[in-house]
Amino acid sequence: MEDMIFEYLEKHATKIRKSTAVKKIVKEFRLEKSTAIKLYEKWRRTWCSKSIPITVEDKKLSLEDEIIEYAQNRSKNKRAKYSKDEIVSIMKLRFENKFTFKEIARETGIDLKKVTVILNKANSYGFKI
Hints:
kinase activity; 7 helices; kinase; mainly alpha; elongated; single chain
């Protein structure tokens, strides 16, 4: 069931907001809203953390590659508080989709304080927020 919902979201929900996607899930699969929200947040995290194949045209890294590399380095730290998936999903939504901090928190289900901390730390490492 979860796989069917993820396939449906992959087709229809990559460019829409959370509320619209949740309504579609509830309508299409006849689920409770709370279940649909949890499934959407899980899908959004996995969708954001998918890596795009690297094409070597020049030696400069794309934004996608920089985000993934930064997330790997941050999550490997002994004192890391956040996983690679959390960092990648937050940063992708911020840089590629231009979401606000509150929208990112709503989309991923991650606490707003965590989102703020992760993006502020990324800003101090040279990413323009």
